[in-house]
Amino acid sequence: MNRVVLQYDQLAVTYADGAQAVRGVSFSLCAGECLALVGESGCGKTTIARAALGLLPSSAAVVGSIRLSENEVVGAPPETIRTLRGLVAGFVAQNPFEACNPLDRVALHVAEAWRAHRQVPPSGRISATLGALGIANPAQQLRRYPHQWSGGMLQRATIAAAAAHRPLLLIADEPTSALDADRADATLAALRATGAAVLLVSHDIGVVARHADRIAVCYAGRIVELGTSSEILARPRHPYTRALLAATPRCAQGMPTPLAGAPPRLTDPISGCAFAPRCTLAQPACHQHDPPLRAGVACPILGPDAVPAPAIQQPETHTARPAAARSAAPEIIVEARQVAQRYGQGGQAVHAVRQASLAVRRGEIVGIAGPSGCGKSTLLRLLATIETPSGGEVWLGGELASRAGSHRPLSRLARSGFVMPIFQDPIGSLDLRWAIWRSITEPLSAPHRADRPRPAQRRSIAREHLAAVGLSHIDIEARPTEISIGQCQRVAIARALCAAPGLIVADEPTSALDASVAAAILHLLAATARSGTAIVIVSHDWALLDVLCDRVLTMSDGILTGA
User: Which residues contact 155 (CB under 8 A, 6 or more apart)?
Assistant: First the structure.
């Protein structure tokens, strides 16, 4: 029998505001095994994972037991925890941009585990680790700074930092959210090849299906279903697990179905099964008794003959949903004419985009897919006139907006909120000093807008758009650092919609969102397109692009095809 590396026994975590983030969680993880924690945002996944390395706020009240390689973590002195980090267990944070110091070269980040323990990394170990994760020319890339790497490359650097010391346990919080499917598979395969136990927090059901041995489905701080991946994905028993899979593009037929209702407030007392208010199968007893986890499921009304949900199907080919027939072609909202982008000069120049041309019409949703670092995000910035191309032109609404050699947007549309971006890094795209209502309504105060609202009106507008992205309960005076990454992503989406733009360019807009919220956002984007807004969306998720987009283009090494 494999050695138990990580053991949770009745773990409970309560934060200073009274939120019961984790309630009676118990499970074990053996050497070489991968267990995935899945569930909606706020269900306790990240708290469970961080607790194993003592990474919770000092104000959090932690009871129960966590044993890491036979060392008790709960109540252990800080020096014991520091010894375990890096040497016994490595941690991959959800946001690679936030995990890196922009003033340090990438090499320093990857060697962090050795530096923290005053050790020198073995010669070539760092480059070899990056090479195994698919980074070309790692020795050269290590000399670069974080801002010179794509989000997917930076994510792999943080994974290399956690894995390079070959710990017994790797705790990974959304480690593949910035990676395309092939890179995600290669990355997790490389992690599994180390022989370490992997505790994986992920919203990506496809990744979980391919790489996790077991799945723990979390809801309102508890594990409601626990079993092998094949069992849970092919024959889910808990109603919440079924609903979660129905909200996943890979499992749903057509557009995914968002879960009705919202999770309970963890600061309020929970009586009975926490999922009962949202459950279509709930009985009176469900509102009175909180069932324990028995035989892998915490639901008393379901027996072994529960109706299975659809199994995961990986499409062998990807065919975009055909555009709806139109009596007359709508006007072109954005057009790129042979645009190119080059960074640097001479032999060190990087050609991020090479003579790309495309036109997107009013109400059309166009997807762009391709591997990490292929130029997708750069092309979006060119379409949004955030960057000036090194070659070619960008037109907005029939007006020349940007061309090679220009130093600022040439069109009034580019300066009036006609184009709204949704960036890949949600926290980095928000001003950390501002309340979220101010960030959401900032586009309405653009000097070239004729309909600028008074400051007193902006809070009401912010609430309306927060409700549209499922954040009606959030404090509009909160700062970005006071809410989760997924909530920051929805704030960024609300800001883009607030301006009623003609064009939205979205870079991985659902990468930080759980399946249910992502499904709701897809419906919202589809409705926005029906109202006339053109949308260009970059995503690594082919299933998402298939169900949402009118057509999908591919990009590789800066070359756009299929336009």
Answer: 96, 175, 176, 177, 178, 179
* CATH number attached to the domain at 332-561: 3.40.50.300
Q: What is the pLDDT of residues 83-115, one digit of tens each?
A: 898 789 989 887 777 777 888 888 887 777 666
DSSP 411-432: SSGGGTTSEEEE-S-TTTTS-T
Whole-number percent of the chain with pLDDT over 90: 52
Q: In what order do the strands lie in the sheet with 534-538?
A: 419-422, 503-507, 534-538, 365-369, 551-556, 559-561
Pairing of β 20-30 and β 4-14: antiparallel
Domain extent listing, the chain: 32-39+78-234, 332-561
Q: What angle do CA 69, 71, 77 make, to 5 degrees?
A: 140
Confidence of residue 322 (pLDDT cuts 50, 70, 90): very low
Domain 32-39+78-234 has CATH 3.40.47.40: no
* CATH topology agreement for domains 32-39+78-234 and 332-561: yes
pTM of the predicted model as reported, rounded to 2 decimal places: 0.77
Q: Which residue has the tokens 């697990």?
A: 241
Measuring CA to CA, how many Å separate 294 from each of 37, 163, 226, 227? 18, 35, 9, 11
CA-wise closest residue to 515 among 174, 181, 89? 174
- Residue appearing with tokens 């309405």: 444
